[in-house]
Write a structure and sequence with these properties.
Layout: H1 8-14, H2 22-33, H3 49-58, H4 67-82, H5 93-106, H6 125-128
Helix pairs in contact: 3-4, 4-5
Length: 166
């Protein structure tokens, strides 16, 4: 990597981050999504011959399940990734996923023919932005104090002088 190009670890080390929690996640995500100066855009880089060979090997839909692609380059890349080595050149995430899938088939992490279940942690579009919850106060409130109230309103009769809008 050229000395003018910082790795994401370098960017994290230089950043002032909040303590662990949702704010830390948001800050790290913002750093990750921010383009860094002098980082080449993927479209401006010609794919290396190694990348082209991997793309060619993994292009057929069932390539990850067969032995040909595995024995002709995918296995070597997987072994390197599994050992914690860094890639010498960038690879598209879609290609990395195919490499992982091929390896997981071989070590029985992913059963052959298995289909990923629908995620259960994703809300449907109509629940992603729920309507606002109406205020909890009403003229018919008992007036009793709850742990969330800051003052005791006592047991008073509701004021019916204004019409309630629902």
């Amino acid at each position: 990597m050229p000395s003018s190009e910082k790795s994401f670890d370098d960017v994290l080390d230089a950043a002032v981050l909040p303590p662990p929690g949702p704010e830390l996640y948001a800050a790290r995500r913002a750093l990750w999504l921010t383009p860094r100066p002098n980082s080449p855009r993927p479209s401006s880089i010609a794919p290396s011959s190694s990348r082209q060979r991997l793309e060619h090997l993994l292009r057929p839909p069932s390539a990850a399940e067969g032995d040909y692609a595995w024995n002709h380059g995918v296995k070597r890349v997987w072994k390197s990734l599994d050992a914690g080595d860094k890639l010498k050149k960038r690879l598209p995430l879609a290609l990395i996923i195919k490499i992982l899938y091929a390896a997981w088939l071989r070590d029985d992490t992913w059963p052959v023919g298995a289909i990923a279940p629908e995620p259960d942690d994703v809300l449907p579009n109509d629940l992603a932005n729920p309507p606002p919850i109406p205020p909890l106060s009403s003229p018919w409130s008992s007036g009793a104090t709850t742990p969330w109230m800051t003052t005791n309103t006592g047991d008073t009769e509701p004021d019916h002088s204004e019409a309630m809008v629902v």
